[in-house]
Amino acid sequence: MSRPLLALYGVQFAGMLVPLVTLPWLARVLGPAVWGQLAAIQALAATLALVVEYGFVFSATRLIARSRHDAVSGEAPPRHVEIAAAVLGAKLLLSAVMLLAAGAVLLAVPAFREVPGLYAWGVVFALVQGFSPLWYFQGVEQLQRAAAVEVAGRVVAAAGVLVLVTRPSHAWVALALQATALGVATGLNVWRMYRTVPFRWPSWADAITGVRDGWSMFLFRGAVSLYTTANTAMLRVFVPSAQVAHYANADRLATAGKSLVQPVSQLMFPRISYLIHHDPAAARRTMLRSLGLLLALSCVAAGVGIAAAPWFVPWFFGAAYTPTVPLFQWLLAAFPAVAASNVLGVQWMLPNGMDRAFNAIIMATGLLNVCLVWLLVPRYGAQGMAWTVFGAECFVTLAMLGYLHVRRSTSRFRKADSKS
């Protein structure tokens, strides 16, 4: 298990921590106004990418994992060919939906029309990010090489930013480098996948099957983005780009910390999905160990980060970004709730088939976040957004705990009633 875990941490390191190398450089070189605009478009691109990615990192991974032992004579299982065709067909269909959504946002938000070239590169970045085939390599638990390709692409992009982005007018270069490097990495990994799985051009039926199979996980990913990724983009609707820069700084640092939780969940998801059907007791023990470990790590990380923020943030970003400090501290305070909800939801509810309840909780949290944004941000600006995120993360964890407690109590009552 250690090698897949290291591979997943490599992807997370490249996706979240490697950009931290360029973050202080961009903040200083671009200045708060331009950096805030770039950060808002990057956040929007990450949100749009979810339309194409569609939650296949969970739904398709689960399908691949369940059928990976069906191979005959070293060939890919026929089911893998069907899944790959369905996912490709769905992604092609969803790409058109994403492009329409991007056009609608551009027309609706004047702030994004100020930088059309930057916005266009953001759309390209969303498209290539959405086509990543890591869902397949996670499902067959052969992630190391695919992860290495993505890590290399992101490292090359970061190096290019440090060399080529030297003034505010170069903001588009940073996004272009990221989109190009990730596009090459995605193309290489797609080629590697189809060396194992025979290529089959998807039919309309394949595309519809893929959309249907991934629907519940898309609801999850989309709703989660409403209180995570999309917040920086939504903030730009209400406040000047300089305020967005302060929140984006805090969010990027906090997201880098939270990203340390995600590899464990991504690794445990196919493993617990397998154990649920073969050894439920072992699945429960695995989940509880993961919960204890991640809660302990998140509490330590939050405490250290909150104490260090007043001196670390000005040193990292520069004195002009001192308003980032309280925003960062509020986002750090939510770390334990993030870790708990990740384990309870991704590692337990989803493998146990509680998709409907899980999605209901996540969607309710997303709606709560949007309501709090409209209530707090116009009055309190970026500080209101930080309060909103803290409240949403606490709500989702309490809702999951409540649901699982009621479900377990009901199950015990039914067993006792059947015995009597």
TrEMBL record:
Keywords: Cell membrane, Membrane, Transmembrane, Transmembrane helix. The chain crosses the membrane at residues 7-27, 39-58, 92-112, 118-137, 146-165, 171-191, 293-317, 329-350, 357-378, 384-406. It is found in: Cell membrane. It comes from the Bacteria. Its main location: membrane. It is a multi-pass membrane protein. Belongs to the polysaccharide synthase family. This is Oligosaccharide flippase family protein.
